[in-house]
Amino acid sequence: MTAVDDRLITDVREIFENLEVPEGFKAELLRGDIVMMAGLGLVHNMIVESVQDQIPRDRWRRLQVQDLDIPDELSEPVPDLVVIERDAVPGAGRLVPSGVVAMVVEVVSKNSVDRDYGDKRSIYAAGKVPAYLIIDPMAEQCLLLTEPTGQGEEADYLLERTSKFGMPLSLDILGIKLDTSEFGTLPPVKRHRRP
């Protein structure tokens, strides 16, 4: 006979905070679900490095895999890159409040497509993150989302701008034009349902 523990989990945040994540993996809390991903590939890491290197360090903090605190959401996403004004960084701690974030960046993988284009889009919009940049090496394009509106799962961005790799992308919020010409690509996978 198999024993089943049918006790209700009442504090998923506590479980998440005490979770022992194996080396080489990262874990996120997305709307009450704990999502674990294996290590990231070379193309992914080189794209993140390229974006980070183009954001002026004297004005911006460019933090890789930083946990965010989204008010009124049971979510603690871990974007590939978080951009914060140098003077706006809060004190110590694991979580950075989404209210101080200027932009988040996610680089899409075949396993993160729906989360990056769907769940995280509404989570970051609900957290009022002013700019969300999705870089998709399979579709060879960037999608810049701005002007967050709404709450919860209904939150979204009012403006979106798509740019193919090789074309510069204006990131007005940071005062730069992002050079995408060196972004690596990955073999296309079955086209996802997202833009």
From TrEMBL:
Keyword check for Nuclease: yes
GO molecular function: endonuclease activity
Gene3D superfamilies named in the record: tt1808, chain A
Annotated keywords: Endonuclease, Hydrolase, Nuclease
Domain Putative restriction endonuclease: 16-171
InterPro entries to which the protein is assigned, alphabetical: Nuclease_put_TT1808, Restrct_endonuc-II-like, Uma2
Top-level taxon of the source organism: Bacteria
PANTHER family tied to this protein: SLL1072 PROTEIN, SLR1083 PROTEIN
Name of this chain's protein: Uma2 family endonuclease
Species this chain originates from: Streptomyces cupreus
